[in-house]
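Support request from a user on the community tier.

User writes: "When I paste my structure tokens into the form, the page sometimes reloads and wipes my input. The last time it worked, I copied everything first. Here is what I submitted, just in case something in the input itself triggers the reload:"
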């Protein structure tokens, strides 16, 4: 006797699940397991260890004025570490980021001085040019398919030459002319280089810029479609493209984010001193990458967080200033930075394996 199919539109009874099988989406995740899966866990542990260490060996480290100095040092690095972390999550690098900060400051200063214009005109022109460099990096990367290491290394060399060449051509020296007495300088200084005094504590405005960028980047990564695209592109560009992710636009947008942060940092550099040396910024790009890696970003992409980059920058600030407060030879700073990089990378790898093992 042959079996007959049920009438069309009839709902068949649900088949019982196989014994021992449960939809993983219905499983409850313990707080400890969630914590173990956070990319910034290793950096938070490292930051706590560094803080305790310098609190013990340096008597002045816990003073309010000392902590404000640490925060300032962390913020100047952290402003750039945030977009660099997002770029690394997207699977790419930017070796031109450090020099681009100086380029941004030079453009603002030289345009304002030569055109005898309000300094805000120079700031706006600098923003456009700096963003254009970010678009150039992203466009060349997506069109040529060359590694980002090669593309941005070329941009780094070109910007280094342009910074020095144009500055000497226009100013006759390796530094820009002072713009401290020009119209708009005071208002621009309030935005990019002012400070707030609370009792005995002085907080630089860069700390507010840093916190704002961390909050914005965290919201983008965790609450927006673009954040999903960043993780997808970093996890595998071909697979992301196959499911409809605009890979090229995402990467160009990430490079523009680095350029925007470089513009902020450049304006702070300019309005803190009102002159800029054309050779500054070389080597800073490695420090940005180190902060992101210490904060939990993987070199291979697809993993990391903006909060982790902030913790990495904070570790950098504590170490650079803690050595001074402990009255040690500052030549040891690079040793400690390298040691922290290795330890943080090993700790992050261990944390990630533990998190994957508990899934």
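"...and here is what came back when it finally went through:"
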């Amino acid at each position: 006797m042959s079996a007959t199919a049920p009438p069309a539109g009839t709902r068949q009874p649900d088949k019982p699940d196989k014994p021992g099988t449960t939809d993983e989406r219905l499983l409850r995740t313990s707080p400890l397991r969630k914590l173990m899966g956070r990319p910034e866990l290793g950096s938070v542990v490292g930051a706590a260890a560094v803080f305790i260490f310098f609190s013990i060996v340096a008597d002045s480290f816990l003073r309010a004025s000392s902590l404000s100095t640490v925060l300032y040092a962390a913020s100047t690095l952290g402003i750039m570490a945030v977009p660099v972390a997002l770029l690394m999550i997207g699977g790419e690098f930017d070796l031109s980021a450090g020099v681009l900060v100086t380029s941004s400051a030079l453009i603002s200063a030289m345009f304002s001085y030569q055109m005898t214009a309000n300094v805000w005109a120079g700031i706006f022109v600098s923003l456009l040019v700096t963003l254009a460099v970010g678009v150039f990096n992203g466009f060349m990367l997506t069109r040529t398919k060359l590694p980002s290491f090669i593309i941005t290394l070329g941009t780094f060399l070109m910007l280094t030459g342009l910074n020095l060449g144009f500055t000497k051509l226009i100013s006759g020296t390796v530094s820009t002319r002072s713009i401290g007495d020009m119209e708009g300088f005071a208002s621009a200084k309030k935005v990019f280089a002012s400070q707030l005094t609370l009792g005995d504590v002085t907080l630089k405005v860069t700390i507010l810029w840093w916190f704002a960028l961390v909050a914005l980047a965290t919201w983008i990564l965790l609450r927006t479609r673009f954040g999903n695209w960043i993780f997808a592109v970093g996890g595998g560009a071909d697979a992301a493209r196959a499911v409809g992710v605009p890979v090229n636009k995402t990467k160009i947008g990430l490079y523009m984010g680095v350029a925007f942060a470089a513009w902020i940092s450049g304006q702070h550099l300019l309005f803190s001193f009102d002159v800029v040396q054309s050779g500054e910024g070389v080597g800073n790009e490695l420090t940005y990458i180190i902060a992101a890696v210490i904060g939990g970003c993987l070199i291979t992409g697809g993993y990391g967080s903006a909060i982790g980059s902030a913790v990495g920058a904070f570790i950098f600030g504590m170490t650079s200033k803690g050595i001074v407060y402990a009255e040690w030879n500052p030549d040891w700073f690079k040793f400690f930075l390298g040691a922290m990089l290795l330890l943080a990378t090993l700790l992050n790898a261990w944390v990630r394996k533990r998190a994957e093992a508990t899934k």
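Agent notes: The reload is a front-end session timeout and is unrelated to the input. The first strand starts at residue 195 and ends at 198. The chain is about 70% helix and 0% strand. Escalated to web team.
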